[in-house]
Design brief:
CATH topology of one domain: Arc Repressor Mutant, subunit A
CATH class of one domain: Mainly Alpha
Keywords: Cytoplasm, DNA-binding, Transcription, Transcription regulation
CATH architecture of one domain: Orthogonal Bundle
Order of helices and strands: HHHHHEEHHH
Subcellular location: Cytoplasm
Protein name: MarR family transcriptional regulator
Helix content: 55-70%
Structural class: mainly alpha
Number of helices: 8
Shape: globular
InterPro entries: HTH_MarR-typ, MarR/SlyA-like, Transc_reg_Sar_Rot_HTH, WH-like_DNA-bd_sf, WH_DNA-bd_sf
Mean pLDDT: 94
Distance between the termini: 15 Å
Strand order of the largest sheet: 1-2
Number of strands: 2
Low-confidence stretches: none
Largest sheet: 2 strands, antiparallel
Strand content: 5-15%
GO molecular function, one term: DNA binding
Radius of gyration: 19 Å
Length: 149
Amino acid sequence: MATRKLDPDQALLLDNQLCFALYSTSLAMTKLYKPLLDGLGLTYPQYLVMLVLWERDGLTVSELGERLYLDSGTLTPLLKRLEAAGLISRIRAVTDERRVHLTLTAAGRRLKVRAAKIPGCILDASQCSLSELVSLTKQVQALRQRLVT
């Protein structure tokens, strides 16, 4: 990778920081999701858990953590609240009690139908075309992959 010399005065301007652009955009995105998710009775992190389980039901807590880049200490309280809400079941494996499998309940599966409107609302609010959002998502995912490896 070629390195370039950065002008220190320019390099330290807040508006030139990729991290700040991503952080402030994440805050704006979470704020946009809040009223949509309130209607489903979910927080944003709970919504992410449900998205993963709607893709692939029956994951273990560790598999879910890998998918969401979260540790079990962060996930456990979220999962307990989702279980208390009747959306998921946590089942310990008979052969290894450390492994906890997550399964959607009927209510959790039904919630997917109500959540289906959310991506369209986000697309509308972004004022981007679908292809622009797909491209942006792929670019951010590629950046994340380079940063975590």
